[in-house]
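Dear colleagues,

For the upcoming journal club I promised to circulate an example of a predicted protein-ligand complex. I picked one with coenzyme A because it came up in last month's discussion. The inputs are reproduced below in full, followed by the predicted structure.
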Amino acid sequence: MLRMRICSALIRDAEGVANLVNTAFGPERFFTAEDRTNPDKVRALLETGKFLLLEDSGSLVGYVELRGERGYFGLLSVDPSRQRSGHGSRLIGAAEDYCRSAGCRLLDLTLVNLRTELPAMYQRLGYRENGTEPFPAESKLPCHLVKMTKPLRGPSGLG
Ligand SMILES: CC(C)(COP(=O)(O)OP(=O)(O)OC[C@H]1O[C@@H](n2cnc3c(N)ncnc32)[C@H](O)[C@@H]1OP(=O)(O)O)[C@@H](O)C(=O)NCCC(=O)NCCS
């Protein structure tokens, strides 16, 4: 498997992170006109969690937050020119490792129900749907968030 050097974003990276997220989330423009994030929101999230990113490259990022026995992962963004090459899956793996090392037993994420191509990808990675939440922004179409969760087992595969 391709090795990736994953590091954590710093405050100075906020603008680049926001640009990458908004570029990657272009496919969501059909149901929301709003940018997915901005540098101020990224800086606020850096106070509650961390952005994992690919070192020396502005092409891959994801946000991860520790919430007691649960972790939360979101804003997974791969530059469009580098999608479908395994980068997204590997960053999810890095987020799982980080949460597992911090003692989390579960990792949560949400996706918009209109992104019908995404559940199968997360299911293959071990995530299962476990509820819904309201969509937290203006939308052009009726929609909601779908919650998915994965149990994080120890490195040996033992729970
Ligand atoms: C979704 C996203 C993060 C996937 O990253 P990626 O690096 O392209 O994904 P990978 O190459 O690791 O592929 C993971 C799996 O998902 C599948 N997949 C990835 N993108 C897909 C798409 N748009 N449609 C259907 N399947 C897709 C791949 O075929 C692969 O499945 P496989 O392992 O069985 O072959 C990336 O497309 C992206 O940044 N999209 C825009 C932002 C976004 O939607 N983020 C997630 C919101 S919940």
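Two points we might discuss: The chain has one domain: 6-151. The two ends are 25 Å apart (CA to CA).

See you all on Thursday,
B. R.
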